[in-house]
Amino acid sequence: MPRNSLRLHAAALASGFAAAVVSVDAGASESLARDRGCLSCHAVQTKVVGPAYKDVAAKYADQPDAEDRLVQKVLKGGGGNWGFIPMPPNTNVSDEEARTLVRWILSSP
User: Fold this and answer.
1) Is the dihedral of CA 51, 25, 22, 4 positive or negative?
2) Residue 58 contacts by C-beta under 8 Å, 6 or more apart in sequence?
3) CA–CA separation, 5 vs 43, rounded Å?
4) CB atoms near residue 9 (< 10 Å)
5) Residue 8 covered by a domain
6) How many domains does the chain fold into?
7) Distance of alpha carbon 100 from alpha carbon 32, whole angstroms
8) Which residues pair with 64 in a beta bridge?
């Protein structure tokens, strides 16, 4: 295989690997959201008490630090970004679960 082809092939493999690493199992993530009580106040497509996940994904789409900021919001709670009702801290959610949930939320259509 020519040298340039090898580089392109390696780059394609690396990018596919990166995509696989950050891919989200939507069914498992929705189940986690249900188990942790997130879906009591949120839904994917419509506002409930809190914003729809699709709206969260759209708002934070171009923000490189969105994942880390939203993980902290899930864990510690907060308010003022979506209206007057604050989101309470989620003490029943681990750091890893919060990251999984946020990745799923940010991938919402």
Assistant:
1) negative
2) none
3) 45
4) 11
5) no
6) 1
7) 9
8) none
Cα separation, 41 vs 2, in Å, equals 56
Where residue 51 sits, what CATH number does that domain have? 1.10.760.10
How many CA atoms, within 13 angstroms, populate the side-chain half-sphere of residue 20?
A: 6
**Domain coverage including residue 99:** 25-106
Note whether residue 86 is domain-resident. yes
- Residue 72 domain-assigned? yes
**Quick one: pLDDT at residue 27?**
83
pLDDT at 23: 58
Count other Cβ atoms within 10 Å, centred on residue 106.
18
Please choose, from the candidates 36, 9, 38, the residue with its C-alpha nearest in 3D space to the C-alpha of residue 108: 38
Q: What is the tens place of the pLDDT at every residue in 15-64?
A: 443 333 445 788 889 999 999 999 999 999 999 999 999 999 999 999 99
Quick check: is 14 in a domain?
no
